[in-house]
Design goal:
About 40% of the residues lie in helices and about 15% in strands. It is α/β, with parallel strands linked by helices and about 325 residues long. It folds into two domains: about 180 residues, TPP-binding domain (Rossmann fold, 3-Layer(aba) Sandwich); about 90 residues, no CATH class. The strands form four sheets. The chain has a six-stranded parallel beta sheet with strand order 4-3-2-10-11-13, sandwiched between helices. Strands 6-5-9 form a three-stranded antiparallel beta sheet, covered by helices on one side. It has a two-stranded antiparallel ribbon with strand order 1-12. A hairpin with a 5-residue loop joins strand 7 and strand 8. Helix 1 crosses helix 11, helix 1 crosses helix 12 and helix 7 packs across helix 10. The longest helix has 16 residues. About 40% of the residues are buried.
């Protein structure tokens, strides 16, 4: 895993093509897999031990299970004033709110980035997953942007964050294909709004609950190269910056798939919903179908299924992913 992938293949484009191929191929309906739930869980235990390689595909459901929910108490812990002033009820929808000025926009995003990138997950779901694959040949492809894999101890050389990273800024001008770490700025902006730190360094609301809805104009983040405007490095449109690190990870993913082509591969899909199935779900179906030694497993809450064409080599286990991983 130590090769230089700067000039390697584009694993992202290749996996999208596999996903599109899968959409066209699987037209015979869906299955819940074969065997009872207990039998499928036991078979997954065996697959985790015996597979030559494990490809983990993770979606938002995995982070939700770890406690990274975007609404409720966790939202109100950091955004009570935004809820009262603008009627925002969750962190996801708030990311699209037309704030009145940049000072308010960046106050929002400093908090959003902080609690979804620089705070540890409340539950050890990612750590439990790491225990299951430690010592195995594994690679992770994920649409999550919260960095929880690395915080749990996964090898960063075996991770491909396809949709960006809350911890990075990019220029608003897509011609500038570079990103910048934002941790220092986030911590400064949180303190400037009036949040205080506890003994462990975690920001929280002051006793009187009063924090500022805005940061000063001088704190608005800028491109360090030309002083231009920046945005979070998140894939929301075609201006998303795929920097050098992104391309290395993309190539590493493609290379890992090639190294284990035709082997006993476990494609372990966890918490992937229906928003972006062409990135993980459909390619996993396609690669399982093409490799008779491969096994597909889907861990999901109310959405565990597979195409009928591969149901004899599929495990579809319904339930909270955190609870399932702890059980394993």
């Amino acid at each position: 895993m130590s090769r230089n992938y700067a000039d390697g293949p584009n694993g992202y484009e290749e996996t999208l093509q596999k996903g599109l191929d899968g959409v066209r191929r699987f037209r015979d309906g869906l299955s819940r897999g074969m065997g009872t739930r207990a039998e499928q869980i036991e078979r997954l235990r065996t697959e985790l031990k015996t597979a030559d390689a494990i490809v983990i595909g993770a979606g938002a459901g995995l982070s939700t299970s770890a406690g990274f929910v975007y609404s409720g108490e966790r939202f109100m812990r950091y955004f009570p004033d935004f809820a009262a002033r603008f009627g925002i009820t969750d962190m996801y929808s708030g990311g699209f709110y037309p704030f009145p000025d940049e000072e308010t926009y960046w106050a929002w995003w400093s908090r959003n980035i902080y609690c979804n990138r620089y705070v540890r997950a409340p539950k050890p779901v990612y750590e439990n997953l790491l225990r299951l694959v430690t010592g195995k040949e594994y690679f992770v492809i994920t649409t999550n942007v919260d960095h929880l894999f690395q915080k749990a101890g996964f090898d960063k050389q075996r991770l491909f964050y396809t949709q960006g990273d809350y911890g990075l800024f990019q220029s608003r001008h897509p011609a500038v294909q570079k990103t910048w770490d934002n941790e220092g700025w986030v911590m400064q902006a949180m303190a400037a709004q009036g949040f205080v730190r506890d003994a462990e360094g975690v920001f929280f609301l002051p006793e009187d609950g009063r924090v500022s809805l805005r940061i000063s104009s001088s704190l608005i983040p800028r491109d360090p190269l030309d002083g231009g405007p920046v945005v979070p490095n998140l894939r929301v449109d075609d201006s998303f910056v795929e920097d050098e690190g992104w391309h290395r990870a993309s190539a590493a993913y493609a290379d890992f798939l090639r190294q284990h082509d035709g082997q006993h591969v476990l494609y372990l899909e966890i918490g992937v919903g229906s928003n972006t199935p062409v990135i993980i779900k459909y390619p996993f179906w396609q690669m399982t179908n093409d490799n008779p030694k491969a096994v597909y497993c889907c861990l999901n809450y109310n959405e565990a299924c597979c195409p009928k064409q591969i149901e004899d080599r599929s495990l579809c286990i319904d339930g909270d992913t955190g609870a399932l991983l702890a059980l394993l």
